[in-house]
Records
---
Amino acid sequence: MLDIKITKTTHPKQKPADETKLGFGKKFSDHMFVMNYTEGKGWFDPRIVPYGSFEMDPATVVFHYAQELFEGMKAYRTADGHVQLFRPDCNAHRFMDGCDRMGIPPIPAEDFEQAVKALVKVDEDWVPHSDGASLYIRPFVFATDVGLGVHSSKNYTFCIIAAPSGAYYAEGLNPVKIYVEDDYIRAAPGLTGAVKCGGNYAASIKAGELAAKKGYAQVLWLDGVEKKYVEEVGSMNIMFKIDGKIYTAACVGTVLPGVTRRSIIELCKDWGYEVIEGKLAIADIMQAGRDGKLEEVFGTGTAAVVSPVKELTWKGESVEISGGKIGPLTQKLYDTLTGIQWGKLPDTKNWIVKVD
Ligand code: COI
């Protein structure tokens, strides 16, 4: 149990006046959680302080060798004004796994969860009231040793910031076009594809930009060895409904084990769908598209929730999905998941953790 010292701001910021124009991760709440680590001493000085800058030496390890990790989660306000989290234990455990892969000393899951809850409680008034808007929470940890030797740092900072946010995509729940990336790769066995480290995203930016120039919202990554099997999309996992069955890539080390992903798999199974987690060849998906069997495609992620895909382009060929509209299963999943998250539907699966 952390003994968190709270210092409240004496200069509260103006909260966004129009919650329909929040965007994603643009404005931040009044406070942040910070805790430090030194080898031999462990994690120490857990505190909530006014949101502000870090002063860092230009030779700090994270700037050069990217030893860091992050999480993404949300706090939701229910119609009766309560604030709640969605499966924070899953983020806490995934963060521990990620720390292990990145050579970062783990933050015990219960401390991670306590810190998230404490920050949300202090900045409770920053949790939006409007439908579809939430407080996006970004825990992250980074190496703070100073020096240019490549080694595991002996000092780290763990921080949590929060941003009142709306939809991740400007398109909202409108279906997006996805470009299947055939040149660059995101992950390969033994690398860091299964953890949420910034380097994975840094490596993806160029391909994302090139796809955006061609009019696509995101790229779909293929496996890094054969460039044959679908893995995930820029900021989400991805699922395909083909001939009544749901397919998604297995989390075997190159795919991020998404919290939304596993929740959606559980819902689909509850509803009687067969869900196949395994290798799915892009060639077979395109063929299903040509045969009219590619019924729905959607991305899943904390930021985007469920994001319908209306078109896939691979090697110059495009297939249209669901007539360019959101499919019925995608809509049902979105309604059910957001219904549970915002407290409009009963939490029959014990996914909700109340903050107040
Ligand atoms: C999330 O869905 O929370 C993410 O972390 C995606 C992010 C890279 C925008």
---
Amino acid sequence: MSLKRKDLLSIASLSAEEIRLILETAESFKEVSGREIKKVPALRGKTVVNLFFEPSTRTRTSFELAAKRLSADVINFVPSSSSVTKGESLIDTARNIEAMRADMIVLRHPAAGSAETLAATVRASVINGGDGWHEHPTQALLDLFTIQEKKRTIQGLRVAIVGDLAHSRVARSNIQALTKLGAEVRAVGPPTMMPVGLERLGVRVTYRMDEGIRGADVIMMLRLQIERQGRALFPSLREYATLYGLNADRLKLAEAGALVMHPGPINRGVEIASDVADSVSSVILEQVTNGVAVRMGVLYLLSGAAA
Ligand code: CP
């Protein structure tokens, strides 16, 4: 089976079957990163452009590594040293990149819907590397991959997503992905950071941390998206940490062997205590490792190489 689509724009647009295909393909690529020579020729001759209009450590680096491990040529476009500073638009920038025969564009942009707009404009495959508050599909896919690796299945797991859900594209993508694969999702956070209508997606909403993480198999902590909030949604970081931070005592409320996850970057001492982030329960760095395999799978499937 192949992924019969040009672009990967959202989890909402993927079927459960397509999600499973990406996870299976990533599984077959994970072994490549453990080799001494971490390279296969699957995308030889293809060109991947990372077009990042927002800062990134994990997503940009792992897309670059994923493309290079598949033997593609990779260009990292840096807006601050490009003609974007002279007023060139996203679409014109992308059209010019495509004119140089780029095959795939990974876009991170502050505007929700930007990846969809770009995909409708260019012939190259577009992969959404995070668009505003909207979605971050490859983050959710690597999160699913990590959970499945540890717990064997997603079906029936109780997953608590904790924090600033309102501004989190990671939460939006994960809610879609987890519910499609049959997990029971709980959204936990202050009312000011809770989007309306989550119940319609089959999510249980609670404003009480202890209730939300009791008996959870997976606790997914979110970063406070202060840069997107625009106004204070909580009296102080100290109060936020007291009410919604994950510490060692709170972790005891979860199921034995519960996984602690975080998409990064983490704010130690705010949403997660340092000892919990570095504990045996934490799979935060394994998420990062798996991100390369998942992005290799996505690039491969979208390249048409699997058809
Ligand atoms: N998780 C994530 O998207 O991290 P970066 O912002 O560093 O890419």
